[in-house]
Design a protein that fits this description.
This protein is α/β, with parallel strands linked by helices. The chain has a single domain, classed as Rossmann fold. Helices cover about 35% and strands about 25% of the residues. The protein has a six-stranded mixed β-sheet, sandwiched between helices. It starts with 5 loop residues before the first strand and ends with a helix. The structure holds guanosine-3'-monophosphate-5'-diphosphate and magnesium ion. Magnesium ion (MG) binds next to helix 1. Magnesium ion binds next to helix 1.
């Protein structure tokens, strides 16, 4: 079925190598590939979901290598309704750097809904950021939710994207 009521533009933000591309690949193709660099341009990936009986196109944009070009950045942020703000639970610096990502997202898209995602939770032995810290940061920075995921095992990946979709739908429908 190709008819749908809404397209929600959702961004993946966060440092390099936190797993943004891997999360999108897991959600779209249900696969995980390690060991080579996947190059994603400005073409978004889409997956259709039915949420509360409403057919929705979740359009996912991975910032890839465009972050250095201001004009690309504007195209990237334009019309975005949500973002998965992603860090790697084994790399504290990627967690600290989210402050900058969030500031930029809120500057470019003041109404954007943010969901905090701690990825690589299959690597429990290497954990560097606790679940409690993640939760607290999400609350303090006005995120609509927090979830830990693994693109490798698939844990919580669909939940992260679909929850984002549900929250955007709630906000869109309450404006009608
Ligand atoms: P990015 O798009 O944010 O830059 P990538 O990140 O999706 O390219 O992932 C960066 C590296 O982390 C890749 O390793 C990838 O396989 C790995 N990775 C992504 N998600 C997970 C996860 O949930 N668990 C684990 N264990 N590894 C993950 P390589 O070796 O391909 O560079
Ligand atoms: Mg990538």
């Amino acid at each position: 079925m190709s008819t749908y009521k809404y397209t929600f533009k959702i961004l993946l933000l966060g440092d390099g190598a936190v797993g943004k591309t891997s999360l999108v690949q897991r959600f779209i193709h249900n696969k995980f590939q390690s060991g080579y660099l996947m190059t994603i341009g400005m073409e978004p990936y889409s997956r259709f979901e039915t949420i509360k009986d409403i057919r929705i196109c979740l359009q996912l944009w991975d910032i890839a290598g465009q972050d250095r070009f201001a004009s690309m950045r504007q195209i990237f942020f334009k019309g975005s309704l949500g973002a998965l703000v992603t860090y790697d639970i084994t790399r504290r610096q990627s967690f600290e750097n989210l402050k900058t990502w969030i500031k930029e997202a809120q500057n470019e898209s003041p109404r954007i809904m943010l969901m905090l995602v701690g990825n690589k939770n299959d690597l429990e032995d290497l954990r560097d950021v606790s679940t409690e810290e993640g939760k607290k940061f999400a609350e303090d920075s006005g995120c609509i939710g927090f979830i830990e995921t693994s693109a490798k095992s698939g844990t919580n990946v669909a939940e992260a994207f679909v929850t984002m979709g549900e929250e955007i739908l709630k906000s869109v429908e309450s404006q009608d």
